[in-house]
């Protein structure tokens, strides 16, 4: 027993001496670790550009953090670039451009004691800066503006999206990607009031076999289909004060046999459904502004 006690005493003395050593590994490693900076996403609203509104904004609220609770912040640069996601209207290109710089003086202390700031990009101003014309030959719904942030520190260092790991850029806590995509969207356009028409065909001649066209007018949906024969015609009225119309295809059996056309009260064929159509997606192309 005495030998055992002596053993524990020696072991304890060794641990105390080891922990008081000035050359502990933790003391050697930590001074060599560079602490960076992040720009946390607080909110993005609106998060897209309205293709029909040159004054449409994209607005980001951001929070800056470094190991001095924001004390190293000098400024944040905002770079933009155009992303062409449509091939049918040619290839629109641009060069990444510095759009604006948000100085530290425009940040204020947020609820967690860290600097916060909000800035907006205006659609037409972004296009002007990139030299992209605001017309359908260059831009269409689904194209995007890439927004990249660069944090400039008072000690001369900079941090951007290429300097952060996935758990920082996409993690639920940090949410600091330094990089965003603002999509150019076509919101629903007001439809022409009056009588619209639907022509439906089935190449086998046995109806739509459970499939349908679902027409929704300001939230009220009507299903159109037919059960026998090779074709059917329908009409429906769009009231004067209608704000939104939607046309969705509901799948059935033998969708490869069916086709349909929807014609607006203004005479435009706004849906031309070919065999084996995609189900559950909007068939109206609001970007055409032809309803």
UniProtKB/TrEMBL annotation:
Highest taxon of the lineage: Bacteria
Protein name: Uncharacterized protein
Organism encoding this protein: Flagellimonas ochracea
Lineage: Bacteria, Pseudomonadati, Bacteroidota, Flavobacteriia, Flavobacteriales
